[in-house]
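Figure 3 (text version): C-alpha cells given as input.
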C-alpha cells in the first residue's frame, strides 16, 4: 500500500497548511500575497478533499486488509483530528 502511504503524507502536509489558514484567520502572519494565496488554496481547498479521500480509503483498507498497514499512527491520528476540525471550520469560512 505505498499509494496509501503517499496519500497519508500528502494529506498530512495539506493539513499543516490548513492549520496555517486558521492562524491567518486571526492574525496577518505573511505579508507576501503570492505565498499567502498558495497557503490558502492548499489549506482551504486541497486539505479537506485529500483528507476526506484518505480517511475513506483508509477505513476501507483497514477492514479489507490482509497485511498490516504501514502508515504511522501519528499521521492517522493527526489526519482524523484535523478532519473533525475541518467539519467545524469549513462551514463558517
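Below: residues designed for each position.
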Amino acid at each position: 500500500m505505498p499509494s496509501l502511504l503517499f496519500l497519508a503524507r500528502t494529506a498530512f502536509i495539506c493539513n499543516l497548511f490548513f492549520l496555517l489558514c486558521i492562524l491567518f484567520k486571526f492574525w496577518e502572519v505573511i505579508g507576501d500575497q503570492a505565498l499567502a494565496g498558495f497557503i490558502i488554496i492548499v489549506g482551504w481547498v486541497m486539505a479537506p478533499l485529500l483528507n476526506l479521500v484518505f480517511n475513506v480509503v483508509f477505513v476501507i483498507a483497514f477492514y479489507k486488509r490482509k497485511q498490516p498497514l504501514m502508515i504511522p499512527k501519528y499521521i492517522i491520528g493527526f489526519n482524523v483530528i484535523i478532519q473533525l476540525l475541518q467539519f467545524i471550520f469549513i462551514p463558517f469560512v
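The radius of gyration is 14 Å.
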